[in-house]
Amino acid sequence: MVLDSSIRGVTTEQRRSALRRLLQAKRCLRVIEAHSPISALLAERICFDGDGETVQYDAFWSSSLTDSTVRGMPDIEALDIRSRLPNIHEIFEVTTKPLIIDGDTGGQPEHFALNVAALERTGVSAVIVEDKTGLKKNSLLGTSAGQRQESITAFCHKLRMGKAAQVTADFMIFARIESLILTSGLGDAIERALAYIDAGADGIMIHSRQKKPDEVMEFAARLQAIHPGVPTVCVPTTYGQTYFSELETAGFNIVIYANHLLRAAYPAMQTVALNILKHGRTLESEEKCLPIDEILQLIPGTK
């Protein structure tokens, strides 16, 4: 039997360095959330052929929100990075694409440095750490959850400690700026971005709760004018009407679809479970389920 690439896999070094290579080769990357090995397998294999071009996802996103949700835990950093590593190991067992992890606040600088070392050894390509302090709450809750931003000085110290913990030049630390989430304004976001880059951040993620992408696009334009070589990241969860091509044109280098696979799976499971109770049989739910034959073909080596 000839093993396909997902079984043969890639080395830790090949996977860890892949994101940097992709950023050099492509103007903008598509990244999608993967909360389990099966969702990562789907994301790795799915593609779309249109207008003479094959479009696919370039990397995975390990989301603290979805990792917590599948374990029935709140998204308050209760599930730390060390607890999430076994799931990443299992994803890496069956896939080949690079992975970016949501590092939440990073915790104490000393803890962040240890986690950077662990992630790098695992083969993760990048961590995105947000500049909030105190009990972490989901950013889409905005100011209603009493969230506070870390001082620029303290967050820069955390970034420097993380960078000092690296062994290779492959691993990247992206600074996630919450200024627009917490209504501190675009000026504050730019000030923080410049300081974080000076502190060693390899890239900047800008987050927003707005329904339109205007403020993140303005941020990208202003930052790219000053630091054109620094990767800029966005997460269009609330401005989902915006096309990838528009974000690419605006200057973004990575677009993360941060929670959609889990959000799609839950309503489907809920509907099927309810229909089985309602009808007393599974026939009415079969059309919403993957056929058994396809499941047997989905995982290499099953048949």
From TrEMBL:
CDD domains in UniProt: ICL_PEPM (cd00377)
Q: What is its EC number?
A: 5.4.2.9
Example of a GO MF term: phosphoenolpyruvate mutase activity
The record's annotation in SUPFAM superfamilies points to: Phosphoenolpyruvate/pyruvate domain
InterPro entries (alphabetical): ICL/PEPM (IPR039556), PEnolPyrv_PMutase_core (IPR012698), Pyrv/PenolPyrv_kinase-like_dom (IPR015813), Pyrv_kinase-like_dom_sf (IPR040442)
Q: Which Gene3D superfamilies match?
A: Phosphoenolpyruvate-binding domains
Q: Which UniProt keywords apply?
A: Isomerase, Pyruvate
Pfam families, per database record = PEP_mutase (PF13714)
For this chain, the family text in UniProt reads: Belongs to the isocitrate lyase/PEP mutase superfamily. PEP mutase family.
Designated name of the protein:
phosphoenolpyruvate mutase
